Amino acid sequence: MLPTLPLHRPTGRVLWTLLGLGGAFFAAAVALLVLAVAGIGPAWFDQVGAIAVLTTYSALLALRTGGRPVVFGGLALAIGVGTVLLDNDQLRGGTAVIASTVTAVLAVMATVPARRVRHALRELLVAVAIAAVGALAVVGLRPVVALDRFDYVSLAFSFVLAFVLVFRLGAGWHGLGRRGLVVVLVGTLALALSITYAELLRRYGSADFIDTIFEGLRWLHDTIGAIPRTLQVVVGFPAIMWGTHMRARRRQGWWVCAFGVAGTVSVAAGLMNPVAPLLESVLVVGYSLALGIVVGYLVIRVDLAITGPRGRRARQAEELAALRPEPRRFEPLL
After folding, report:
1. Which of 47, 233, 240, 334 is most solvent-facing, going by the fewest CB within 10 Å?
2. Count of alpha carbons within 13 Å of 38, Cβ hemisphere only?
3. What is the SS3 assignment for 241-283?
């Protein structure tokens, strides 16, 4: 008979026991997904691995945000099993959206404050790795969806969930402050312009202008093998770097991190295109990551130049003093 697990938020030894069991469960799930991608083993490996990753990620997100991991993990398990057993296209698509959303938000919530730029880079790589495993789970559910609609719905759900959670972590609107308000407005504007411009260009752009752009994109694709994604480069990845760097100094950094889901949700849905080979999907993330790191580094440097102290010694002292406390990576934030 299995032991009864507590429904309240676990702490201490119970927490680390749950994390250990979850780690073993997660490792087995990732192994199944990797074997499925390699074409090794039974055909059901991908679906079982996807359900296991969805369950683990849902439990971790609940744990990280002060919820009940056993309850939400069990709910995710029930949804995943029901989706596979019923084998309905709409249900598979809906569950894939849930998996993509949970993955994107967990990837951001699992980050920790970064005192220095190299620490911010580490946090970005952690977030991308979490999202990449989630991408295997999303495609392992075998959804049948319209790609554009799936991307927009996943992005919208991810932002709603991220902002709800950050609203609690950032002490609501009261903790936003003038600096945080500017960040939210600028980030929202950049996100809206990125999406709106692409749609307006696709719908109303002149044929010659669109052909010119497509010719350039085809040349870039043929030359380097893939095309970086604008949302990852301009919004998502720099937001994670800058946000974690700011969180070491002030809690408004959480509002910046919320925009990181623009990058992680794109990674989580990166394998959904059946036409694009696996290598191309990997190259897309790799190129976007490289460019996003450059943008994130520049944003942090500009921020420090405007708001930080002057002089090398003063900057080093500021880094040493940037010790705003937060729980460890897989401990509850609330």
Report:
1. 334
2. 8
3. HHHHHHHCCCCCHHHHHHCCHHHHHHHHCCCCCCCCCHHHHHH
The burial of 286, by beta-carbon neighbours within 10 Å (0-12 exposed, 13-18 middle, 19 or more buried), is given as middle
Closest residue by Cα to residue 32 from 46, 17, 53: 46
Spell out a b/e string for 20-42, using b for 16 or more CB atoms within 10 Å of the CB, else e. eebeebbeebbebbeebbeeeee
Rounded to an integer, what distance in angstroms lies between the CA atom of residue 46 and that of residue 30?
A: 9
Q: pTM for the full model?
A: 0.85
